[in-house]
User: Fold these one by one.
Assistant:
Number 1:
Amino acid sequence: MNRTDVFVEERAGTGPAPRAVETNDAAIGVPLPHESAELHVSGEATYTDDIAEAHGTLHAALGLSRHAHARIVSMDLDAVRNAPGVIAVLTADDIPGENNCGPVLHDDPILADGIVQYLGQPVFAVIAETHELARRAAALAKSDDVVRYEPLEAILTAAQAKAAKQFVLPPLHLRRGDPDAKIAAAPHRLQGTFEVGGQEQFYLEGQIAYALPKEMDGMLVYSSTQHPSEMQQVVAHMLDWPAHSVVCECRRMGGGFGGKESQSALFACVAALAAQRTKRPVKLRADRDDDFMITGKRHDAVYEYEAGFDERGRLSGVHVEIALRAGYSADLSGAVATRAVCHFDNAYYLADVDIVALCCKTNTQSNTAFRGFGGPQGALVMEVLLDGIARQLQIDPLDVRLANYYGVGERDTTPYGQRVDDNILAPLTDALLDTSDYRARRAALAAFNARSPVLKRGIALTPVKFGISFNVPFLNQAGALVHVYKDGSVLVNHGGTEMGQGLNTKVAQVVANQFGLPLARVRVTATDTSKVANTSATAASTGSDLNGKAAEDAAQKIRARLAELAAKLLGGSAADVQFAHGSVSVNGGAMPFGQLVNAAYLARVQLWSDGFYATPKVHWDAQTLTGHPFYYFAYGAAVSEVVIDTLTGEWKLLRVDALHDAGQSINPAIDLGQVEGGFIQGMGWLTSEELWWNRDGRLMTHAPSTYKIPAVSDTPAAFYVRLYENSNVEPTVFRSKAVGEPPLLLPFSVLLALRDAIAAAVPGAKAAPPLRAPATPEAILDALDALRDLPDANTAAPPAANPLTD
Ligand code: MTE
Ligand code: HPA
Ligand code: MOS
């Protein structure tokens, strides 16, 4: 099969028809397959562990802390050193430079020094002849004779940390207007609490790094990372070397999901340290359980809220406190908490509001980026709050949502002061209401529930508005390097990383489109810090916005030089030169692209160029939490319908209709994949993935046997995912919109549909079902019990007949 073959999988409701922006071979807006699709399915794609090992390669493994918080009294590592195959054992004392791999504050030791701050923290590294022997020796960390500890008091949960006033960063506080007065004066009020669990990234390829020493104190580090420049930086600091001595390369990741934005650093550092000490190549690959025990996850959160509202449920004043479990160090928690603050509004106008976010310091893994980056944790509580208002007023939660939507030209300023000037919430919701048939199904559901004593159905529509840009303005920059070789083939390097999201495919489409070439003529190479310097993480969904623009800039510069030459050769003006279908034409004449390139080489025209992009408009005042943090917003909405078994708490997702705004999609096949994947991943977070630490602070759910991510069988049989026809109001690359993270918020509709079904089981209850997330069967039964115990609940025996079994 040829790489340029176009697959258009026809199936019900998979979005708009392919729309070609330009009629050349690398059409934009066409559902081309992922650039590595064949390699992925055939198993030929090279991940870090597949790189051919250099002669003399050694393997590292980590010895982990057995306590959540303890002083290290002594270490006697002789037994480890004497274990079979062991070449070296390294501790913090072996680090020549800085013992830190934290991205913002310097509070993340690579190897524990003096104290351990969570159970699972790496204390020493074993370097051995094989992976297996290294792991066996590292497992001796479990013995009391090897590391002796003096346990200290451990704080494990956000609630405990809040009570003890232990934070990794100062609280964030955003206030607009006078919410207290508005709440006091409101005709209706609601107070509540809520909690949502964390989430393990569960990338299929675990954390891994492979370091090879080079001449003159140099180091090449292959790292499975979203942030090669940061890996270069932390390795250089650790070795006390200049950055130019370290190269970090990443061809692709088997998923990152935020978990490799900062936390690939520990693995890169240990591999590089071991390589520097032994003068041999060293690979460090964490197995799944160690990966779970060592690395941070999505921040779980506990909330307190209070709101005042009118008869229609329109909010007049709101107060919320979001207490996030940061773990033992700051990592990216400050930016995560800021995004939580900036997404509490979700799709709704909040005139008078008070938002507090706390980064609670606990003796657990240091929580980090995960798809949505605090945005989901901010917006979820708003949806729960609106659901509570609807239950209290006994009206459809959809109508409460609609009553609070941001307006167009009025009621359109976010709490942080940015105007929502690209609002498409109303037309997008109307389109979804239409295709999902929400209102008719709501009525049908009520009829079903009246007849069905045990099984209860629920439905919910939830919207998403997600701000696009890094909320730290300087990170919104990118670079690229484009080479056109003498034969007319093109090589692209950019600062972004490929983790399955299709970034390289989109960037290749953009560059191929500039030159009017088929996609097969453009190759995107591994991300490499020696090619593009000082890159940002591939994160905040900005990968194609930033790197697409940078690569386009580079290609445009080369194209301008080629156009000038073509005009000289063929006559006419450079501005009129067309690049399409592999040929270059102007003034009635044409020549193949390759021929023009060769002529350019002989005429000594530069055939390669750098490119750069910095997102316009973004600014942010971190003191007042106001500004214009986002270049634009991406929107979406979903309707989910569930059925629950009120005796067992089991449930099933019956149907999903999702409509998502990817602007003018560069590649609808890839974007639909992102929406589907984001939906199922978010559903896993909210329903089945449960992280559980025992009272010693040991994470007990550290493998797929106990931690349940959604499987393909959890995908609803009726899963209608569509892209909303839209165009970015901002001049992004081909007016597309970022699509990586926003769809993760669409399955809020699943959680709210579960609450709807629970409410249906207890008619008369005027409180929302106190359903926590993840909504496991246990949580569903707990919520049913709690709701039945409320004074308004009508616990009269339901009708005996079950229509599903009749
Ligand atoms: N899709 C796949 N297949 N694998 C991933 O690891 N990460 C998500 C999202 N989609 C991810 C993914 C996250 S957290 C982000 S920020 C974006 O992709 C990053 O890529 P982009 O900016 O190029 O969209
Ligand atoms: N997303 C991901 N990573 C980040 C962000 C963000 O918004 N801000 C700083 N680092
Ligand atoms: Mo994504 S959480 O910004 O890596």
Number 2:
Amino acid sequence: MTLEGKRAVVTGGGQGIGRAIALKLASLGAHVAVADINEKSARDVADEITAAGGAATAYRVDVSDHEETAGLMKDVVEALGGVDILVNNAGITRDNLILRMPPEDWDLVLRVNLTGTFNCIRAAARPMMSQRSGRIINISSIIGQVGNIGQANYAASKAGIVALTKTAARELGARGITVNAVAPGFIETPMTESLSEKVREDFTTKILLRRLGAPEDVANLVAFLASDEGDYITGQTINIDGGMVW
Ligand code: NAP
């Protein structure tokens, strides 16, 4: 599998799953634009890639801001000559029961997770359409399929990503652009590290493979979908959860 000569944008690439995806795509030969709201973490990951002999550039972006995502894609196209792979990975949680959820937390999670994905697809679709090729991979979650107590905002945003993925696949397929979603289960990252040992154990007993996922597990699937080997897959949501939800 190779991504030699490909130009990739990974949002939320500064840590966790996004970092693992950026490292994986770069290890396969892609030039990776590591885009994160945290400029320092984006720079650290880009430095890690270049230190390992790969190619990467760091960008600061808030995906929830339409202007900023348009600016990001413009800068990437100017610097690299186009964009072949977009991974919409940036995401946040603001957990609370519905009755206690501040409306601002509902809005914020929808704005970052769902509107952010829309903003980046919208910005990348034009250059991809003129190239007549492209790969868009959106990070959803199994929580978007089954719901979770205290995560109404997050679950709705991740279910929305599935519908957005299907629609974008329909609109862009004729131009040679595939659009898929990946739905991870429980992956060990900074997002999940604050969960108690009890919650982790409860989750583990529900996973057929009896282990929590690693960011690299998700990165391997994303790399496959971004590669020539994933050429004939579009409009799909693929779960990667060790056997939790199906
Ligand atoms: P993470 O460790 O919190 O990393 C997310 C990254 O996105 C951080 O670097 C964060 O920066 C950045 N970010 C946050 N808001 C942003 C914005 N508005 N614009 C640009 N970047 C932004 O999370 P993760 O666990 O790696 O999760 C990555 C993705 O996988 C998310 O979409 C998440 O919902 C999804 N997912 C995760 C799991 C899991 O078990 N970990 C399961 C299913 C799905 P800051 O740290 O500075 O905020």
